[in-house]
Amino acid sequence: MKVSVKRGDSYQEFEVPRHPSQTVLDVVTYIQRHLDPTLAYRFACRVGMCGSCAMMVNDVPRWTCRTHVDRVLEKDQLVVAPLRNLPVIRDLVTDMRGFFDKWARAKGEFRGRQTKQDEFAVVSPQSEDRKLADAGIECIGCAVCYAACDVVKWNPDYLGPAALNRAWTLVKDVRDRSNLERLRAVSGDAGCHACHSHVSCTERCPKHLSPTAAIAGLKREVAKAVLRGEL
Amino acid sequence: MSYRAESFLWLMQRISAGVLALCVTVHLATIIYAVQGGLSAAEILGRTRGNAGWFAFYCVFVLAVTVHVPIGLRSVCSEWLRWRGRSRDLALLLFAAFLAWAGMRAVVGVFA
Questions:
Q1: pLDDT value at B27 more than 90
Q2: C-alpha distance from A223 to closest chain B C-alpha (Å)
Q3: Which of A151, A155, A231 comes nearest B7 by C-beta?
Q4: B37 pLDDT above the threshold of 80
Q5: Between chain B's N and C termini, which has fewer beta carbons within 10 Å?
Q6: What is the model's pTM?
Q7: Res B48: pLDDT
Q8: DSSP bridge partners of A63
Q9: Is there a contact between B11 and A184 if contact means CB atoms under 8 Å apart?
Q10: pLDDT of residue A10
Q11: pLDDT of the residue at B62
Q12: Under an 8 A CB cutoff, do A188 and B6 touch?
């Protein structure tokens, strides 16, 4: 197959042999090991856990370690490029700092109510809040949703689907104590209210999460807090 | 603009969207129903003028448009034109005033 790899402002063409069950990450690794050792790309676990190998594949953001070539090959050709909406460090490697800084801006860290002297908090897995939090908790931070989001492209300050999804899982965590502060952090033009519900994040999320639903939940929580006069 | 004000604007846009959904439905249904037999402008004005109920309905319609449209354009300005900040908000405030004036002028002309 023909593989075009974006390197800087241009694309470099490679001819890569096909194999059964071959993934896009296998293809990029083949290029780096056999055709051009200067190619820079990022990966770690190779099994869809770490979220470090995401790239644009034929113009769609995907986790490359779990994307089979059979599923995405178009006319015997692959086009591989670094993730959209992130600065490129080199070749296929993006700078993820802005992406994770936004998790911090969205107050994405857990802040418990209890100390180590207290008993364990008992949270029923069947409670509504826990079920809503659980629905978004498996995010691997791959930034596929961030690359898929047009609002991120149009509004660079926008926190993005992953950070807002993380905030939502904490808003629904009954053990957390900084919810009002978090709702303030995720509201407004750079927060959940910027989302147009295009659903691209949900469409592309490799873990089949729904950041769109999380953002809609944040909008509801913020609206309630505004009406109560708490924000 | 503060996050509080931005959240309030979002809420106002959602509420006005709900009002508009109702108003547009009633507006279109009324037009389709009323013109079935063919109506002249004079006949329409004969039915509408002095009708306090319809006057109030269209006042609400204009108010919802005045709230809804500038808030939506605010996002369009920032995302597509990269026009942000006070100048954008002031321009949209003026546009809201224009919508209210033009809308109420039409309402007064048809219903008062």
A1: yes
A2: 7
A3: A231
A4: no
A5: C
A6: 0.90
A7: 87
A8: A54
A9: no
A10: 97
A11: 97
A12: yes
Q: Among 3.10.20.30, 3.40.50.2300, 3.30.450.40, 3.90.1170.40, what is the CATH number of A2-94?
A: 3.10.20.30
Helix, strand or coil, per DSSP, at residue B20: helix
Q: Are strands A88-90 and A10-15 parallel, antiparallel or unpaired?
A: unpaired
Q: Would you call B10 an interface residue with chain A, using a CB distance cutoff of 8 Å? A: yes
Q: Which residues of B touch A184 (CB under 8 A)?
A: 3
Nearest to A189 among B6, B11, B80 (CB): B6
Within chain A, which residues score under 70 in pLDDT? none
Q: What is the ipTM of this complex?
A: 0.80
User: Scanning every residue of chain B, which has its alpha carbon at the shortest distance from the alpha carbon of A192?
Assistant: B7
The architecture (CATH level 2) of B3-111 comes to: Up-down Bundle (1.20)
- CATH number 1.10.1670.10 is the correct assignment for the domain at A97-227: no
**What DSSP assignment string belongs to A154-191?**
H-TT---HHHHHHHHHHHT-TTBS-HHHHHHHT-STTT
Residue of A nearest to B11 (CA): A223
Quote the strand ranges of A74-182, DSSP E.
77-81, 88-90, 93-94
Backbone phi, psi, residue A134, to 5°:
-60, -30
What residues 38-97 of chain B have any CB closer than 8 A to a CB of chain A? 75, 78-80
